[in-house]
Amino acid sequence: MLPMQRMINQANDRQSIPSILSAIAQAIVEVTRTWNLLPAVRWRPELEAEFLANHGLEPPFHPTQHPFAQPLPANLDSGAKRLDRLAVHLRQTESGHPFARFLCQRLEQAHRLRDWLQARGTPRFAEYARAIFGTTKPNHPNSVDPDAILACFHRYQTHAEIPPDSPTISAPLALQELQQRLSEYFADTPQTLVCLSDHLTANAAVRSEILYLKADATFSAADVAMLEVHEGWIHQGTSRNARQGSRLRLFQRPTPESTRLQEGLAVAAELLFQTAGPRRIRKHQARVQAIQMAESGSDFRQIFRMLGEMGMPPREAYQQTMRIFRGCPLDGAPFTKDLCYGAGLLQTLTWLRDWADAPAPERLQAIFAGKFAWEELPLVESGLRDGWLRTPRYLPRPFRDAKWVRESVSRYLPPAN
């Protein structure tokens, strides 16, 4: 008999249910460990040099070429079968435990991610992106308002004291500064928090609680402050809160569905703490405009030229254009993940305004407790009230001040109806 089946058969009291749920959650993590969307759609690095050498006159690759830097995970089919068995085990517990429902949702999300990965390079890939990340198409069920997003960033440009923004700091120097700042924020975890990487598409990213900086990138003082808040306080902080606050490791693992909350909270922190410099805001705006163009039929070269006309250097314009076509055919709909930053920002600011009107600790703690989708927040709040989840340790102190939150958020949102 399989070990998990034996556990379920012996589960004749509710005290054993949490152990079963933890075992199922751990099994989901193991099955999906290599099912990572963004690495799977990363392009081969030599495509950039070839495209720029041709001055952007030719597409970055021919439709018959394979642009991806790595193969798909080998266990997509076998993993799907194991997920089905885990779903059977979950139904057999008949626990009624609220986090059994959470695990059901994560199993559904894992199946969807598997199908999404298998759609790489086809038009279906973009359809999955629209369903999860959003679209600027007005009649789509997951439509977002690009004008509202751009207006929010414009209010920041108008009202915030935007910091200087000259990128003269090397990645090693930025690493030293961020390591010092984040060591103070995560004072109880004296360990390496920041590393350099030669394999990033973006200038920075958090993976497994470590902030990686692109080794050949340069940063401004505003960039360093923004990374401290966005990548450190939010992305690293929620990862550490999840590890320390729950026996379910799934709470540490981001999913495509959790992107809008995670990135929305991180960009909201950029604005509320006024760490986003002019280049950062222009980049947020350009990504929204580029997705609008791509969804209206513009191709890779047209968007690359548009970004160049906005003042982006050729290499940055290529990388930003690549972001919205990765995983998708060059002549089709785009990969709309970058809408999550703006759409998530508006959703987060609105949520914070509502919270500040009737502040409740467990509601605020919930958005910092781990990697969740907006739809999962009520379950997280319930877990905090019932003691199934521990109170998040890392929550930026100003967020606890409802008056500060209300006044700060009001700068960037239109008046409530």
Automatic annotation (TrEMBL):
<protein>
    <recommendedName>
        <fullName>DUF1704 domain-containing protein</fullName>
    </recommendedName>
</protein>
<dbReference type="GO" id="GO:0006508">
    <property type="term" value="P:proteolysis"/>
</dbReference>
<dbReference type="InterPro" id="IPR012548">
    <property type="entry name" value="MATCAP"/>
</dbReference>
<dbReference type="GO" id="GO:0008237">
    <property type="term" value="F:metallopeptidase activity"/>
</dbReference>
<keyword id="KW-0482">Metalloprotease</keyword>
<keyword id="KW-0378">Hydrolase</keyword>
<keyword id="KW-0645">Protease</keyword>
<dbReference type="GO" id="GO:0080164">
    <property type="term" value="P:regulation of nitric oxide metabolic process"/>
</dbReference>
<dbReference type="Pfam" id="PF08014">
    <property type="entry name" value="MATCAP"/>
</dbReference>
